[in-house]
Amino acid sequence: MLQHSTRVALLPLLILAAAVLTALVVTSPLYLSVISFSFFFVGIFSVLGYFRPYSGLMIWLCCVPWLSLTKWTGAMVIEEFDLALWGYVLGLVLHLFRHGLPGPLMNLQWHRGIAVIMLLAFGWQLMALIKGYHLLPANEAVYFTNYEDQGGPLRIGKALFSALCFYFCCRYLSADWPRFQRALIVGFALGALAVMLGCLFERWHFTGLLNLTTDYRTTAWFWEMHTGGATLDAYLALSLPFIMLGLMNAKTQVDKVLFVLLLCLFGYVALTTFSRGVYLAAFIVAGLFVSLQYTRLKAAGRQLLPENKQRLFAMLAVAILAITGGLWLFPYGGYRVLLAISGLVLLVFTFVAVSDTFERSFAATGFAAAVIVAAALFWLAGVGKPVYGFYALCWLASAGLLYLRCLRGGSKLVDALLAFCFMALALLTTAICWYWSDYRLTSAQLPGLLLLPLVLAVTFLPFGHTEKMPTALSFALWAAVSGVVIVLAMFFNSSYVDSRFSTTDKDLQGRFEHWDKAIQAMPAKNDIWLGSGVGRFVPLNRERGDIDDQVAVLSLLPLQQGNALYLKSGSHIHGYGEVFRITQQIARPVGNIALQLNLRHNSDIKLLAEICDKQLLYHGKCSRGSLTVKGASDGVGQYSIQFADNPFSSAITDSLTSKTFSLAISNRDTEMVLESLQLADSLQANLLSNSNFSEQMRHWFFSSDRHHMPYHVKGLWPMQLFEMGLIGLLLWSGLTAVVLMQQWFSKTHYSQTGSTVALALLGVLLVGLFDSVIDGGRMAMLYFALLLLSASIRPHRLT
User: Fold this and answer.
1) Among 682, 706, 730, which residue terminates a domain?
2) Phi, psi of 172 (to 5 degrees)
3) Which of 172, 186, 188, 505 lies 20 to 30 angstroms, CA to CA, from 570?
4) What is the model's pTM?
């Protein structure tokens, strides 16, 4: 039980948490008169916070990347993950009020100098929030109206408050350090898994998993990328060190395998973002993680490599052969042959790391038998699609025999069978390459094909008497080899990657020009020192920016009965990807589709209506309709747009995924007032919710796919300069530098978790060099939270 004084101290926190939650639940856009999802989120996480605080923290961290329904609800200020967090805080306060602390608070402690800088930086951030909120027009609702009202400062202010709530939880849960550390690692790892599954589904549904030549960037569950940005990139970068730490600390083989698979999945998702920021961040973060762990283990006197390095040299030889063969064969066999080579290399690495040398005569017999069987099968049936199934069966058989050999030792029969399976895998990899290239084997492929059986020559090397190596090292080297060969193959053979990187200089110059415009948009002379305030970039850029590059205007107009939507298109070039679209998620339409509109306009207007199979930015199948009207309307005009076709079938994927309806003005600098619209299919049902805007902008969202620079300052430090001035930028930069130095550069003190959290923070900062990473609530909250943790996790003396 808690002492009476501690109860009194916790009581105001309990009252505050309950009051904030009550106000937020009532105003949440998901609030219903009978059943409320808001109450559900608050209730379930309050229960977790009270009964299972560590599990609750882990589950909430897992939910952060996807528990935000803004794309469906239109709410951008208060999101579902906020309600979950504040419900968890309420439950945790009740838990502490009832049971007390699990132990002394020794693991999160502040150095006085860092605490002073932190208070100054957060205080300056608060002043910028208040300034932006005071100078912007009122936000009419919790739903999105535009980026020019008080919703912008509220989103970042809410993120700051959420980060403090999260840190409050960590502060007390860290008393049981092993459980807290595991909750943190597993929570971020599961969050990364949720993101990766979203990316996998998106790529499978829209491009195919192995199509890496299409101009398609995944967005997963991050609605913040609707105006460009790098929210997905930043989350991937911050999650990588937690995945690597989880692999390093895994206690069982099952845990190691799961983290290895997660790391491989991370590699695929990171590659398919086609983001130079992710590539840079992943390379630097992973390199620093390995360097820091090596330094720590060396300082602790750990022997990291065996004294006899024959096994290591054998694995390096396999790595060189695999990389060379993969690059040689990729133009003919694509990513399928790379995956086949990767599977073979993993087994060979494991064999070299933990097994004794083959019985050479029996291994040679197994190799020869595999060649004879493969030749006979080719002569009888040729090479067809079943080769993939044969490869999978052979790989599983090899893994089982290898496990049996490690468990019980080698035998003549096991050696012969394992050698047979190894050679069969090499030959099946050749067959996959042959099949995928439409049976066009040429002399140019022959050297690459000969390298695959050569990989198996290392199994005859006399390393059986040497010290065995940890399987974690073989897995790490395998992951590195697989990543290197896939990255090199992409850069040397993908036309899209080549074209994207060829524009780096041009994009960099565009960033510099964009930052110059941001500084020029600052209205007062002293703003360069004090900042212009959070959330004011869009209106100031409209007022002081280039008149030929203005973004669209979106606002609600009050009517005697309900509201109308005022929409003015931008003055910039209107290509298909640049038009400003108001959007809404709808159910799959059935049969013929028609759109009825009631609107007013004062000039010629061209409207584009679409229903697309769309995640957020890039679309799949679409049905389109258009309308062109000359002159101005006399009062409210009634118009109809007939969609050309309905490509959405009753297939499972079409039924499970929602469709995106969008409406846009496709000519430049044109305005209209939209009073209502109705989208009907053959069932004569209106597929749109809140179609007359009587509930403000509930259910409505927007997208500006390829013209997003005027919506935010692209870059963390330029954004801080604009919002908080040079003083704020220096405070935050100084704080970040001191925090990173504390965690990384002490020769006598080290915290494994602290350095990992600091690496996660570095990942966000690296992506933020040239992209907007904290103009949305989620990443802003994680950025503040990682900074708080990095600054206060106490490094321990190395022993």
Assistant:
1) 706
2) -90, -30
3) 505
4) 0.84
